[in-house]
Amino acid sequence: xxxxxxxxxxxAIFVVIAITLLVSFAIRLTxxxxxxxxxxxxxxxxxxxxxxxxxxxxxxxxxxxxxxxLKGLLTLNFGRSFTGSxxxxxxxxxxxxxxxxxxxxxxxxxIAISIPLGIKAATARGKAADQIIRVLSLLGLSFPNFWLALxxxxxxxxxxxxxxxxxxxxxxxxxxxxxxxxxxxTATNVRLVRTAMLETLQSQYIMVARAKGLSEIKVLYKxxxxxxxxxxxxYFGIQFGGLLGGIVVIERVFNWPGLGTLAFDAVGAxxxxxxxxxxxVLALFIVGVNLLVDIAYGLVDPRIRTE
Amino acid sequence: MAATISRRSRFLNFEFIFGAxxxxxxxxxxxxxxxxxxxxxxxxxLMARLARPFSSLAHPFGTxxxxxxxxxxxxxxxxISLTVGLTxxxxxxxxxxxxxxxxxYYRGIWDMLLMRFADVQLAMPFILLxxxxxxxxxxxxxxxxxxxxxxxxxxxxxxVRGSVLSLREREFILSARAIGVKDWRIIFQHLLPNLIGxxxxxxxxxxxxxxxxxxxxxxxxxxxxxxIPSWGGMLADxxxxxxxxxxxxLFPGVAILLTVLGLNLLGDWLRDSLDPxxxxxx
Lengths: 307, 282
Hints:
The structure holds 2 protein chains of 2 kinds.
Chain A (H helix, E strand, L loop, with lengths): L1 H26 L5 H6 L7 H11 L5 H13 L13 H36 L4 H14 L3 H15 L12 H30 L2 H8 L4 H12 L1 H26 L4 H10 L3 H29 L1 H4 L2
Chain B lengths: L13 H18 L1 H4 L33 H37 L1 H15 L3 H12 L3 H27 L3 H8 L4 H37 L11 H10 L5 H29 L8
């Protein structure tokens, strides 16, 4: 087990280093922040530009800049924003809860809906209920999420006036972004639950449980669901990355004060430290969740470890 | 397991009929858009600005604030979506399948590089990759396609690599090797035909995914040129007039939804037909 743990941990560290290296390098190709600062500000001399570059540290060689970023990362210090000089860690700390809470709510709601639907589809395999759930989930997968968001704003904010169209002004602000994320997530999860349940339902212990005369609810939710929990948790873990990516788009539509909005503004201003910080934090979360899932899987199923 | 495979007819079911019909109608309308709407997407009817939908035969879906016909623009906008969807998937398949075949067949350093690269890409949210990439190279049709290929070939490479790993130990490959068949012939004549099924399923589903991604990118101002009519671009415009002219935002979205739905139905049907054990569940 120790060997397995170390191997997975090293892989995770490699991924984080590769991503930060890639991003730090790529963002420096997007343009000179010193020039961006002067945009529309009249004339500038080479001297002015050079002074700003020295102040920002962008005159240093790339690897020097990257290593000072890595060194800061160990203490979660991402430097200061180029615009407004707020510490990046503070900007991220302000935005992170909004993004994570939204991700968490949509994930929980979608799992709560997709488990009973997926189980229903699996037990009614090939029958009308299965077909209906299947087509509905395909429909859910086909929605452009930003358009769904626009249509909800049209219906619930503009026409009915029930929900705030954008920003975060209270609990009611969560409803539309969470539903938008939830529809697509649920559509995917229903199929995952269905597939996992179909496999489990063929096992002999399910036959035994039925033969014992247990109620169908007990067979399905206690015996079968528990046994497909492991593959499902793995899928949900893998989904987390895509979920965070999707939230970035939805944040933009709802003007949500999260990491996505922060990243978009950072690219516009060529604010290297902020973008680096946001992508690193997101990558840390995704890698971290997958690492936990892997370890949990390895603990439960010894065959994985020797793979 | 054979007994448990569902018994429903694989060829003439609802999924296939509905999916094929939707896809065919949309492709046909988009291909014929220049004939259906001469003057088309750019024609401005100043007398009928912001005409409401379903009120006149001249503009069945209404007009936008410049007096351009929404129906004509939706049909013309499909060109961008279908072009991006098809070319990006073809590009991704070519790169991914070649790399996957090489990595799975030769193993070693290439295989390791591929798998580590896949790890890195899985931990990087697509949209952030897109923001950075487009900030460097600028938004355009070609760059959008390149971005989609770059972010997707790994999926095919991993899928193909997995199939090659299990196929290469099978008797027919071992015997081909034993009688001295050349590597490239084994790869293209014996391995490729045996693993192409799941690749085709993934392709169909990814055309749908890429149409969605392209429209989100364009909607966010990171995709194709906003002056060319495209579904994402129309939605970005329409968002500004959401209060006064809902129809400008409604119809392009419905177009995306129906196109993607048609392709998803086809892909799902294909998966069931080619791969009844469900190995390629996404």
